[in-house]
Automatic annotation (TrEMBL):
<feature type="binding site">
    <location>
        <begin position="32"/>
        <end position="39"/>
    </location>
    <ligand>
        <name>ATP</name>
    </ligand>
</feature>
<dbReference type="Pfam" id="PF02463">
    <property type="entry name" value="SMC_N"/>
</dbReference>
<keyword id="KW-0963">Cytoplasm</keyword>
<keyword id="KW-0547">Nucleotide-binding</keyword>
<dbReference type="GO" id="GO:0005737">
    <property type="term" value="C:cytoplasm"/>
</dbReference>
<keyword id="KW-0067">ATP-binding</keyword>
<feature type="coiled-coil region">
    <location>
        <begin position="747"/>
        <end position="788"/>
    </location>
</feature>
<dbReference type="InterPro" id="IPR036277">
    <property type="entry name" value="SMC_hinge_sf"/>
</dbReference>
<dbReference type="InterPro" id="IPR024704">
    <property type="entry name" value="SMC"/>
</dbReference>
<keyword id="KW-0238">DNA-binding</keyword>
<feature type="coiled-coil region">
    <location>
        <begin position="322"/>
        <end position="356"/>
    </location>
</feature>
<dbReference type="GO" id="GO:0003677">
    <property type="term" value="F:DNA binding"/>
</dbReference>
<dbReference type="GO" id="GO:0006260">
    <property type="term" value="P:DNA replication"/>
</dbReference>
<dbReference type="Pfam" id="PF06470">
    <property type="entry name" value="SMC_hinge"/>
</dbReference>
<dbReference type="InterPro" id="IPR003395">
    <property type="entry name" value="RecF/RecN/SMC_N"/>
</dbReference>
<dbReference type="InterPro" id="IPR027417">
    <property type="entry name" value="P-loop_NTPase"/>
</dbReference>
<dbReference type="InterPro" id="IPR011890">
    <property type="entry name" value="SMC_prok"/>
</dbReference>
Length: 947
């Protein structure tokens, strides 16, 4: 590398564009004081990036620009170009010629740098010259007066010279960058490790919670798989059985009632029959006495003489008896037929009535079902309310929802729902202590929000007396809502807080008038479900509540009507059944009587035959039946026969009655047995119904609570047919549920959070690994650089010291000099100091040497460094000013030798130096204040400058 040329335009005293060309050989610049020689140093340093005003001998930035003279105006900018021959590629640039430019505009106060006319940053220029020997101009451009200072330089400044001489500046810069990076990496590493530790602490409990939740959900999934089809099957079966059992129970109850009626009737009839039997006995006894008397008389007559007339009479009476009996038989046969006809007509009526009633019952069931649905529609609580109600027992005192605790007559239902329907699901508890418990429970289990009312101390609301006395007088006023609400006395405050300041009016017209009258100070609700809020907003129309109310009313009315008709029909059926039973009993009696009369007739006819035969035997003639005046005598009371008949009739009656009583008793036993059986059936049905209802309710609860499904929803779902027997599935279900209970409360969010945190943890861990690797790499790079720097510094240090001592000896004609590390164990940072002892002197403190001696020491060191480092350019500005002639000569000789390897430019006043010059430049100010430069010969110089 060789500095071929300097071009200066407007720089300091160089008002005109000036070119200084350099050639091989020792260049010496001479000129009078103040002509601008040192401005050339400044120009060089300035272009190479010097920024210190002090070093550039300026007070302000503008001082670099020509400030004007008597004849020349100030320049608007300063520009210096350095032309380097770079054919040896010392500068890392592909061009053989490198032009470095710096410009400064006065107005802009802006420095511009160029490399080969291309605009670059100051840093680029500095980097280009780094480790070339021109990187630190303190080493290569020794300014006037600063040479002696080198001898007394601070240890760290000397170190900088050694570093530049060792060519480790690049390493230093790279190390600095690496150290900065390392610090950044280390800081990040520390932050990441803190984060990682934080995550670790969070992950451990979260992992447990996540596993627990996963386990819970897995069991829940298994449970759901079997539980829903199980519940469906159980409910289907349950409802079917429930229907069957209800029917059975109902049927049994009806039958029981019927049997009870039969039993009552039987008991009553029996009692009556037994009384009748006793009466009959008495009457028969009486008749027997009469019969005996009559028979005795008759026997006497027949046995007396066998009188023909008497015998004829006997036949006659027998015949009359037969005729009487035939009349009776005819009469009772007609009676039986009548009874049969009546029974058949009653039965037809009863069947018709029964089928009609069954239809009504089916309709009633349907109406009841619709009513239940409508009533239960309000019971869809949100999760929070439901969970509080379900866990009621664990809190101090939870009473229930507002809806459950208050009631109004049906006419106020719509008004109530409109006015405070939004608060129906508020939960009433005893006091705020319970509210704290319930709210904490909802929060802990993340179950949502519910509104609570403390019954003991909720703030009551009421209408001030003055307003009340006005409003009750307004036409259409119905009542104050809180007055029509029915609730337990302990909820008095709750009712008053909800409805104490709400007024009910009959209709919207009167309500609007009233609201206006009281200046919209209260909420007014109408029976039709419209509401006027304070401040006058009205909500009205035909809402679902109305529809629901109408539906409820419609179904309620239908229910009542149907119940009435069914009841009426059932009474009629009862009556009919009783009638049929009565008629049957009557018909049975008549039937049995007929049979017995027929038998009796047979016997009587047989008796008559015997009499007729006896007559023939005794009187040897046939009894002429024609002679009898039967018709005439028929009217006559034939006492014995009649008595006999009466006795027979009575006996017959008695017999029939006895038979009837026996039948009735048998029947009674039978009915009693039936009654017992039915009672058992009913009890059995009740027990089983109870069981089934419990099963249905438990399973419906599970369905609603755990799956938020209704039975209807469940029916719409299709499941695979259960493979295992129901009992085994139920055992499985219970086991799963037991496991879920054992796990208890789970946090489902934990799974997601655990996954997120684990992913974050892994990412962080990976980043930490990368940072650790980077840290190790940087540390190792820094270490390698340190080793290389130590090696180079040590090497250079030893070589410099060798040459420093030798040159010193030459310049001082003996003595010793060296540079020494202050901390020899810390070659990377240690500063240096110069140790020099001139011959015959024991002075080691450099400050005690003379100015000339200090210059010599510094020159020795600069030359030594230059020899070792081979600086491409060395500019020495009057460094030999303080030397005596002999030393100037020695200095010039050294310079001459050094010039063989280094481009040496010396600014000098000393003839000893000038004489060794190969090229001499003269600097003058021919025009006052403006530097001009030209080639001169030594003679001319001697003539102009020295002499
Ligand atoms: P010596 O031999 O006494 O050291 P020298 O030849 O080295 O002197 P310099 O110090 O280089 O001289 O130059 C100083 C001269 O430059 C002074 O005359 C000064 O007025 C002039 N000068 C410095 N800066 C400017 C400037 N911005 N504009 C005009 N002239 C300037």
């Amino acid at each position: 590398m060789f500095l071929k040329k300097i071009e200066l335009k407007g720089f300091k005293s160089f008002a005109f564009p000036t070119v200084i060309e350099f050639k091989k050989g020792l260049t010496v610049i001479v000129g009078p004081n103040g002509s601008g020689k040192s401005n050339i140093n400044d120009a060089l340093k300035w272009v190479l990036g010097e920024s210190s005003k002090k070093t550039l001998r300026a007070k302000q930035t503008d001082d670099m620009i020509f400030s004007g003279s008597h004849t020349k105006e100030a320049a608007s900018f300063a520009e210096v170009n350095l032309f380097f021959d770079n054919s040896n590629k010392l500068l890392e640039h592909e061009e053989d010629e490198i032009i470095i430019t710096r410009k400064l505009y006065r107005k802009k106060n802006e420095n511009q740098y160029f490399i080969n006319r291309e605009k670059v940053r100051r840093k680029d220029v500095k980097n280009l010259f780094l480790d070339t020997g021109l990187g630190n101009t303190d080493l290569s451009i020794i300014s006037q007066g600063s040479v002696a200072k080198i001898a007394e330089a601070r240890p760290q400044d000397l170190r900088l010279l050694l570093e530049e001489a060792s060519g480790v500046s690049k390493y230093q810069i790279h190390k600095k960058e690496a150290v900065l990076k390392l610090e950044k990496v280390a800081t990040n590493l520390e932050i990441f490790e803190v984060k990682l530790n934080g995550l670790k602490k969070q992950i451990a409990p979260l992992k447990k919670a996540s596993e627990q939740a996963k386990n819970y959900l897995k069991i829940k999934e298994e449970l759901t798989k079997i539980e829903l089809p199980l519940i469906k099957s159980l409910l289907l079966d349950g409802y079917n059985k429930q229907d069957e059992l209800k029917n059975l129970e109902e049927k049994s109850k009806q039958e029981k009632i019927l049997i009870e009626k039969i039993l009552n009737k039987l008991a009553k009839d029996l009692k009556e029959d037994q009384v009748t039997l006793l009466d009959l006995d008495q009457e028969i006894t009486k008749l027997h006495t009469i019969q005996n008397d009559l028979q005795n008389n008759l026997n006497k007559k027949i046995s007396f003489n066998g009188d023909k007339k008497e015998f004829s009479n006997k036949i006659k009476y027998s015949l009359y008896g037969i005729n009487d009996l035939k009349d009776i038989i005819k009469q009772t046969e007609n009676e039986e037929e009548d009874l049969n006809k009546q029974i058949s007509s009653l039965k037809t009526k009863m069947f018709e009535l029964r089928s009609e009633t069954e239809n009504y019952i089916a309709k009633l069931n349907q109406v009841n079902f619709q009513l239940d649905n409508l009533k239960n529609a309000d019971k869809n609580y949100n999760q929070a309310v439901k969970s509080i109600l379900d866990n009621k027992l664990i809190f101090n005192l939870v009473y229930g929802t507002v809806k459950d605790l208050i009631k109004v007559d049906s006419q106020y239902e719509l008004a109530l729902e409109t006015a405070i329907g939004s608060k129906f699901k508020n939960i009433v508890v005893n006091n705020e202590k319970t509210i704290k418990e319930t709210v904490a429970f909802l929060k802990k289990n993340k179950l949502g929000i519910a509104t609570f009312i403390p019954a003991e101390n909720v703030k009551e609301k009421f209408i001030i007396d003055e307003l009340k006395s006005v409003i009750i007088k307004i036409s259409g006023f119905n009542s104050i809502l809180s007055d029509v609400i029915k609730a337990d006395s302990k909820f008095k405050k709750v009712v008053s807080s909800l409805a104490g300041n709400i007024v009910i009016f009959n209709d919207l017209d009167s309500a609007l008038l009233a609201a206006k009258f009281i200046q919209y100070r209260l909420s007014i609700v109408t029976l039709e479900g419209d509401i006027i809020y304070p401040g006058f907003t009205v909500k009205g129309g035909f809402s679902n509540k109305n529809i629901k109310k109408f539906e409820l009313e419609r179904y309620q009315l239908a229910k009542e009507k149907l119940a009435k008709v069914i009841n009426k029909n059932e009474i009629m059926i009862d009556n009919l059944e009783n009638n049929i039973l009565d008629f049957n009993a009557k018909r049975d009696i008549v039937q049995k009587g007929n049979i017995r009369n027929a038998e009796r007739l047979h016997f009587l006819e047989k008796d008559l035959q015997q009499l007729l035969e006896s007559y023939h035997t005794i009187f040897k003639e046939e009894f002429d039946l024609e002679k009898l005046e039967i018709k005439k005598d028929l009217k006559k009371p034939l006492s014995l026969e009649k008595i006999n008949n009466q006795i027979r009739n009575l006996n017959q009656k008695k017999h029939q009655l006895s038979l009837k009583i026996i039948d009735s008793q048998d029947n009674q036993q039978l009915q009693n047995k039936k009654w017992q059986d039915l009672l058992q059936k009913i009890q059995y049905s009740e027990i089983n119904l109870d069981k089934i209802e419990r099963l249905i309710s438990e399973n419906t609860d599970i369905l609603n609570k755990d799956y938020q499904l209704t039975y209807q929803n469940l029916l719409e779902k299709d499941f695979k047919k259960l493979k295992e027997p129901i009992d085994e599935i139920i055992i499985k279900q219970q086991e799963y549920r037991k496991e879920l209970r054992a796990i208890g409360y789970i946090d489902q969010e934990a799974i997601k959070r655990y996954q997120e945190l684990t992913a974050e943890y892994q990412k962080l861990d990976h980043e930490i690994k990368e940072l650790t690797e980077a840290k190790e790499k940087l540390t190792s790079t820094i270490d390698i650089m340190d080793q290389e720097m130590i090696k180079r510094i040590k090497n250079t240090y030893l070589k410099i010291n060798d040459r420093f001592d030798a040159i010193f000896k030459t310049l001082f004609r003996g003595g010793h000099a060296k540079i020494e590390f202050i901390e020899p164990d810390n070659l990377l940072e240690s500063g240096l100091e110069i140790r020099a002892s001139a011959p015959g002197k024991s002075v080691k403190n450099l400050s005690l040497y003379s100015g000339g001696e200090k210059s010599l020491i510094a020159i020795s060191l600069i030359f030594a460094i230059n020899e070792i480092r081979n600086l491409p350019l060395l500019l020495l500005d009057e460094v030999e000013a303080a030397l005596d002639e002999a030393n100037v000569e020695r200095f010039a000789n050294f310079a001459k030798i050094l010039n063989n390897q280094t481009q040496l430019i010396i600014v000098s006043h000393r003839p000893g130096t000038m004489e060794k010059a190969d090229i001499l430049y003269g600097v003058t100010m021919q025009e006052k204040g403006v530097t001009s430069i030209f080639n001169v010969s030594l003679d001319k110089v001697k003539e102009e400058f020295i002499n």
